[in-house]
């Protein structure tokens, strides 16, 4: 299913995007050495419910998971890159943490992910990986203009990641959003320009480049959800929801506040 939003629905999409972005920024500010992943999930739940929204993950039960997911946010640490199931784990100095959040507000979904290093011991490798996903995301967004094809976005994203020296896994990638979290069209993190669905104003896409330091292969935790690098190497993940407009892409998940560390 591919949904094209009306102007009224796009207004609600902006509200959902702002909520997702601000929750992620608030959580980033609270994530310090000693923070438990279950606390992050609890904080996310409180903010989502307080805003009158719904997490798209609680009842999420796709064919590839062991569902339902049962938590409000994905928390992926170090070698975990996607669908990190919150559990009783305490963050350490230098951990690379990815938070992935999708909420429905007013019947419209927004989806975003950020990666950052906890504490003061950020390795050059971790910072380089995060920066590569952010550059790739920016390139994909720049290519998202009316009349372009999803393959143009995939090509832009993949070019950045491959030029930075990373392998690209194509099992999971970007996707359409709307009244539900995962819709067509699929947007792979590498591809050929000029191929795929032609973009139209009113289309919402979640673009999400993610990489692993030295592999393209994933393994699944016994929890049935958390996806990790097959070699145990570090990973990073960045994601925005964008709306295709007559003038190009509008990023809906930009934060309206800056993350502030806890005192």
Automatic annotation (TrEMBL):
EC category: hydrolase
InterPro entries hit by this protein: Creatinase/aminopeptidase-like, Pept_M24, Pept_M24_MAP, Pept_M24A_MAP1
Q: Which GO terms describe its molecular function?
A: initiator methionyl aminopeptidase activity; metal ion binding; metalloaminopeptidase activity
- The enzyme's E.C. designation: 3.4.11.18
Q: Which reaction does it catalyse?
A: Release of N-terminal amino acids, preferentially methionine, from peptides and arylamides
Question: Cofactor binding mode, per the note?
Answer: Binds 2 divalent metal cations per subunit. Has a high-affinity and a low affinity metal-binding site. The true nature of the physiological cofactor is under debate. The enzyme is active with cobalt, zinc, manganese or divalent iron ions. Most likely, methionine aminopeptidases function as mononuclear Fe(2+)-metalloproteases under physiological conditions, and the catalytically relevant metal-binding site has been assigned to the histidine-containing high-affinity site.
Q: Which residues bind a divalent metal cation 1?
A: 100, 111, 239
Indicate the secretion signal residues. Answer: none
Q: Name one GO cellular component term.
A: cytosol
Q: Where does this protein hold a divalent metal cation 2?
A: 111, 175, 208, 239
Q: Where does substrate bind?
A: 83, 182
Q: Which cofactor is recorded for it?
A: Co(2+); Zn(2+); Mn(2+); Fe(2+)
Instruction: From the UniProt record, give one GO term of the biological process aspect.
Output: proteolysis
**Does the UniProt entry include the keyword tRNA-binding?**
no
Q: Which residues form the Peptidase M24 domain?
A: 14-246
Question: Does the record's keyword annotation contain Metal-binding?
Answer: yes
Record keywords, A-Z: Aminopeptidase, Hydrolase, Metal-binding, Protease
Q: How does it assemble?
A: Monomer.
Family membership: Belongs to the peptidase M24A family. Methionine aminopeptidase type 1 subfamily.
General function of this protein: Removes the N-terminal methionine from nascent proteins. The N-terminal methionine is often cleaved when the second residue in the primary sequence is small and uncharged (Met-Ala-, Cys, Gly, Pro, Ser, Thr, or Val). Requires deformylation of the N(alpha)-formylated initiator methionine before it can be hydrolyzed.
Provide the protein name: Methionine aminopeptidase
In its UniProt entry, the species of origin is given as Knoellia aerolata DSM 18566
Q: What is the lineage of its organism?
A: Bacteria, Bacillati, Actinomycetota, Actinomycetes, Micrococcales
């Amino acid at each position: 299913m591919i949904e094209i939003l009306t102007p009224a629905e796009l207004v609600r999409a902006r509200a959902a995007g702002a909520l997702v972005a601000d929750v992620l920024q608030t959580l980033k500010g609270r994530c310090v050495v000693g923070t438990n992943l279950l606390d992050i999930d609890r904080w996310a739940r409180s903010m989502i419910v307080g805003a009158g929204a719904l997490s798209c993950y609680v009842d999420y039960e796709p064919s590839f998971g062991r569902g339902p997911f049962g938590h409000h946010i994905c928390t992926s640490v170090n070698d975990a890159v996607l669908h990190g199931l919150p559990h009783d784990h305490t963050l350490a100095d230098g951990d690379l943490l990815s938070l992935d959040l999708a909420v429905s507000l007013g019947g419209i979904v927004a989806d975003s992910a950020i990666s950052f290093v906890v504490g003061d011991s950020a390795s050059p490798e971790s910072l380089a990986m995060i920066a590569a996903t952010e550059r790739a995301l920016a390139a994909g967004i720049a290519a998202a203009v009316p009349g372009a094809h999803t393959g143009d976005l995939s090509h832009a994203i993949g070019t950045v990641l491959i030029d930075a020296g990373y392998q690209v896994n194509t099992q999971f990638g970007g996707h359409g959003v709307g009244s539900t979290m995962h819709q067509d069209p699929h947007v792979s993190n590498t591809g050929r320009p000029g191929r795929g669905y032609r973009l139209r104003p009113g289309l919402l896409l979640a673009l999400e480049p993610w990489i692993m330091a030295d592999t393209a292969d994933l393994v699944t935790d016994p929890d049935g959800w958390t996806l990790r690098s097959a070699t145990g190497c570090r990973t990073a993940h960045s994601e925005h929801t964008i709306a295709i407009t007559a003038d190009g892409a509008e990023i809906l998940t930009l934060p309206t506040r800056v993350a502030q560390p806890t005192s």
